[in-house]
Design goal:
By secondary structure, the protein is of the alpha/beta class. The chain has a domain at 2-156 and 251-310: Metallo-dependent phosphatases (Purple Acid Phosphatase, chain A, domain 2, 4-Layer Sandwich), CATH 3.60.21.10. Helix content is 27%, strand content 17%. It is built from 9 helices and 16 strands. It has helices at 12-21, 51-63, 73-82, 98-111, 116-126, 146-152, 167-170, 176-186, 222-225, and strands at 2-5, 25-27, 30-32, 37-40, 67-69, 131-133, 138-140, 189-191, 198-199, 205-206, 208-211, 226-227, 255-257, 273-275, 289-295, 306-310. The strands form 5 sheets. Strands 5-4-1-15-16 form a 5-stranded mixed beta sheet. It has a 4-stranded mixed beta sheet with strand order 6-7-13-14, with no helix packed on it. Strands 8-11-12 form a 3-stranded antiparallel beta sheet. The structure holds manganese (II) ion.
Length: 311
């Protein structure tokens, strides 16, 4: 049975405290539990001060069959950052812009850009599947979107690991594969109705919004779906969202996601979906947490299986 752990973002000490709380012990071949395994939801790196240690803990657990892991958008970006763009000599699949560098700077500085450790980390990230569809549960970093998983299938091997040859296409802004990949790892974003826009916390004018993509139905409106700051939600109209912009979730199996920075007391999204990213790396919330769900085969999730540590 599995303990699913949310986004760590370089907070290795919190991870060790959470593993201890879950009954894992550190032995010569890494952290382990006599009869449980961890599933990591991705986003091991960027932001925190113990990113290398975080990778070491997680990779050692995976290598010794004490954990599974999926890729987060930060691992995807880390790979694209190091991968030369063969069509544009001197460029990389993720552009080396100031913004992109700032997001990744703490990782590059800690691990040493181009070092053996950096190359080893990237090689490991490339082996992380994009999702897991196990007998009793599903795991993906941000969004389980059945049609986009089908779109991505030609680019993945049978373990949902990206084929070496597929990276350029998955990084090519505008390709169907890129849109599918972005949705799986970053969540479903939709265009707001014509004429509607808002200014986000960074001062950027937004005409698109993240969505609570798991909601679906005839009466779902843009305001229902929009994930925007609470002072902005009233600007989003109660206009119906066309069905093709609704992902929805069938609830066939419990689904575990990370990515969305939750805060407050950890809780489920609903009885079929748990988001386990409780913002361990957040700067401006009262009590950042690293959170896990102790899953023992149940088909309906219960909030009392959530376990967390404070930063
Ligand atoms: Mn993420």
């Amino acid at each position: 049975m599995f303990d699913i752990i949310g986004d760590i973002h370089g907070y290795a000490t919190a991870l060790e405290r959470l593993l201890t709380k879950l009954g894992y012990e550190e032995k010569a071949d890494g952290w382990q539990h006599p009869d449980r395994k961890v599933i990591f939801l991705g986003d091991f790196v960027d932001r925190g001060l113990e990113q290398v240690k975080t990778i070491t803990i997680a990779k050692t657990m995976v290598d010794n069959n004490h954990a599974l892991a999926v890729m987060g958008n930060h691992e995807f970006n880390a790979i694209a950052w190091t991968t030369p763009d063969k069509e544009q000599p001197g460029q990389f699949l993720r552009a080396h812009t100031k913004n992109n560098f700032n997001q990744h700077e703490a990782f590059l500085n800690e691990i040493g850009e181009g070092s053996v450790a950096h190359q080893a980390a990237i090689a490991w990230f490339k082996q992380l599947p994009l999702y897991l569809d196990l007998p009793g549960l599903r795991v993906v970093h941000a969004c389980w979107h059945q049609e986009y998983l089908i779109t991505l299938a030609p680019y993945l091997n049978e373990h949902a690991i990206v084929l070496a040859s597929a990276w350029p296409e998955l990084c090519r802004n505008g390709s169907a594969a890129f849109e599918a990949l972005e949705t799986i790892l970053k969540g479903m974003e939709i265009a707001l109705p014509a004429g509607v826009e808002f200014t986000d916390n960074y001062g950027h004018v937004r005409k698109r919004t993240r969505t609570s993509w798991w909601l679906s139905g005839n009466h779902i409106t843009y305001r229902d779906l929009a994930m925007v700051p609470s002072d902005i939600i009233s600007k989003i109209p109660h206009e119906p969202v066309p069905p093709h912009l609704q992902a929805g979730y069938d609830g066939d199996k419990p689904l575990f996601i990370g990515h969305y920075w939750m805060n407050g007391t950890p809780d489920l999204i609903n009885k079929h979906i748990a988001c386990l990213d409780w913002s361990i790396a957040a700067k401006n919330i009262p009590s950042p947490k690293l959170c896990a769900y102790q899953w023992s085969g149940e088909s309906e999730l219960t909030a009392d299986h959530l376990v967390w540590v404070e930063r």
